[in-house]
Sequence to fold (109 residues):
Amino acid sequence: MRPLNHNRAERAAIVASINASGGHAADKNAGATVAISSNNRAKTTAEAVDYLLWRLLRVPAAQATRDALVTFLTKELGTDTIDRARTYMEDALRLTVHLIMSTPEYQIA
Fold:
């Protein structure tokens, strides 16, 4: 895992880019979809959650929190493979970002 070294302004910009929708989820400019597919190339929901946690938190999330987020995203997408959900994953990713922003780890940074 990469070091957690971004500041509040960088995190705010990341959240804004993830929440900014450039159109439909299948649109290559769609915020969260681009964050997961273009920047990170996550192949599974676990990798997508790990990427979002790395980008949004300054301190590591508890293992139970991470596991709950992976379970949530997998249930929302109906699969644990990002490629299968590429055309409809935008809303599920936005909800996952919202959950991460609701964690104590995000609030203390």
